[in-house]
Amino acid sequence: MIPVCVPYLGKKEERYLNDCIKTNWISSAGEYISKFEESFSQYCGQKYGIATTNGTTALHLALAALKIGPGDEVIMPAFSIASTAFAAVYCGAKPIFVDVEPDTWNINPALIEARITKKTKAIIPVHMYGHPCDMDAIMKIARKYKLYVVEDAAEAHGAEYKGKKAGGFGHISCFSFYANKIITCGEGGMVLTSDKKLAERCQRLKNLSFLKEKRFWHEELGFNFRMTNMQAAIGLAQFEQIEKYVNLRRKNAVLYTKFLKDVPGIQFPVERKNVKNVYWMYGLVLEKDFPLTREQLMNKLRDKGIETRTFFISLHNQPVLKKIGLAAKEKFPVSANISRQGLYLPSGSGLNKQEIKYICDSIKELI
Ligand SMILES: Cc1ncc(COP(=O)(O)O)c(C=O)c1O
């Protein structure tokens, strides 16, 4: 089976991880954590990094650090993973959905202003599948209405908008290092910001709100979102090779597009002018004239030993949000359509040209 994605680990990861074991630094103190935080934040153009247990806790921590809470509204794309909406709900805030652009699958800036109310506190742009959002337009709206921008860059390590890295725009931004991400540490996340006070607040909140000055004294509810030194060791080793991983993803995307370009009825991922798409996952949206349904295509590819995944299910259709009265009544036609018709092909950095050719030939053969 060609899996959708497998982590791509090597000797360096092994060496750094062994170092943690040999030196006994296996918990959430240790120098790999600060090295990983410093180097990754610098790479993304932010001053401070706060490592967390995963991308979902990074989002939760970011919103909690901004004091987003009950009565507040947070604008986000209707098309995203549940984590984006859950983070707002964990804080007691209401997620407000906005439909996405048909080509990039990112939040549509032209539709944001209509969703802003007196309760709006933040916008979460999600750089979907590695394509950066239209950050100029989003930052302009945020400035106009004095809103925080919390980038969800969980899928966009190394992506660029007008030469600047994804994760470098927001007041605060969040990454995931889950095993299928462009760089990974198994499970892991990071919050980035250039605001010193906010960074200190994140460091404190992620560590049960222990006070530095007075041990075991807590003035605020905190969390245990601490990453271990072992995760950071793998994360740092991966980070030190990030350009290689980004280039592999981009190379795979070029091959897919080249081999599939004549297949009718497929919408391919785009790379808009002035951006660098890192193609975290190579997604396709099947159009009306594609001869198979998405499920038929996925089942037939599975029979040929090729694993695929459906796109996310639009957040406005999530039963849990409906149950707690947070699902939107509005329609989000683009998000609904790509949720129904989208799938992604194997996209890991370890994929080779023969495998990509086999996957594309299989699709052509099936239709
Ligand atoms: C856009 C987005 N945000 C947040 C997350 C959550 O990250 P994690 O799985 O590390 O909690 C993911 C995970 O895939 C994601 O794709």
Structural commentary:
The protein is α/β, with parallel strands linked by helices. The protein has 2 domains: 11-99 and 107-239, Aspartate Aminotransferase, domain 2, CATH 3.40.640; 242-366, Aspartate Aminotransferase, domain 1, CATH 3.90.1150. Helix content is 37%, strand content 14%. The protein contains 12 helices and 14 strands. It has helices at residues 11-23, 31-44, 55-65, 82-90, 135-145, 196-206, 229-239, 242-260, 294-303, 319-323, 333-341, 353-366, and strands at 48-52, 73-77, 94-98, 120-123, 148-152, 160-161, 164-165, 172-176, 189-193, 266-267, 275-276, 282-286, 309-310, 342-345. The strands form 3 sheets. It has a 7-stranded mixed sheet with strand order 1-9-8-5-4-2-3, sandwiched between helices. Strands 10-12-14-13 form a 4-stranded antiparallel sheet. Helix 5 (135-145) links the parallel strand 4 (120-123) and strand 5. Helix 3 crosses helix 6. The longest helix is centred in the last third of the chain and has 19 residues, at 242-260. The two termini are 21 Å apart. The mean pLDDT is 97. Pyridoxal-5'-phosphate is lined by residues 54-56, 80-81, 83-84, 126, 152, 154-155, 176, 178, 189.
